[in-house]
Amino acid sequence: MRMVRTGTGTAALLLASLLGLYTPAAFAAEPNCRGIESTSARLSCYDAAFPPKVRKPTEAGIDSSSGYKDPFLAEEARTAAKLKNICRGC
Question: Using CB atoms within 10 A as the burial measure, which of 35, 52, 57, 79 is most buried?
Answer without folding.
Answer: 79
